[in-house]
């Protein structure tokens, strides 16, 4: 969903099952088997899930 903001994760029995997000006029819920966060380096989904990034690449782009 373009321009939607994730508000919280949907959890059931200790497993993340989807997200609740703010749309243009109201809050929606999506349940899924696989969730991919694609909102850049600030990744709210990762933060809500409590995941810490592992730094394995150099601090610069290498061609």
Structural write-up:
The protein has 1 helix and 3 strands. It has one domain (5-49). It has one helix at residues 44-49; strands at 5-12, 15-22, 27-31. A 3-stranded antiparallel sheet has the order 1-2-3. The longest helix is centred in the C-terminal third of the chain and has 6 residues, at 44-49. The chain starts with a strand and ends in a 14-residue tail after the last helix. The radius of gyration is 14 Å and the shape is globular. It is mostly beta strands.
Write the layout of secondary structure elements.
Elements: E1 5-12, E2 15-22, E3 27-31, H1 44-49
Antiparallel strand pairs: 1-2, 2-3
Features:
63 residues, mainly beta, three-stranded antiparallel sheet, 1 helix
The major pleated sheet works out as: 3 strands, antiparallel
Strand content: 25-35%
**Shape estimate:** globular
| Rg of Cα set | 14 Å
Let me know the average pLDDT.
83
Fraction in helix? under 10%
Count of DSSP E strands?
3
Number of separate domains: 1
Order of helices and strands: EEEH
Ranges with pLDDT <50 over ≥5 residues? none
User: Taking strands numbered 1, 2, ... along the chain, how are they ordered across the largest sheet?
Assistant: 1-2-3
Number of helices: 1
User: Structural class, please?
Assistant: mainly beta
Amino-to-carboxy terminus distance:
33 Å
């Amino acid at each position: 969903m373009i321009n939607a903001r994730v508000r919280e994760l949907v959890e059931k029995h200790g497993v993340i099952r989807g997200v609740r997000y703010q749309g243009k006029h109201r809050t929606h819920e999506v349940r899924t088997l696989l969730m991919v966060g694609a909102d850049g380096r600030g990744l709210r989904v990762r933060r809500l899930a409590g995941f810490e990034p592992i730094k394995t690449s150099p601090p610069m782009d290498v061609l």
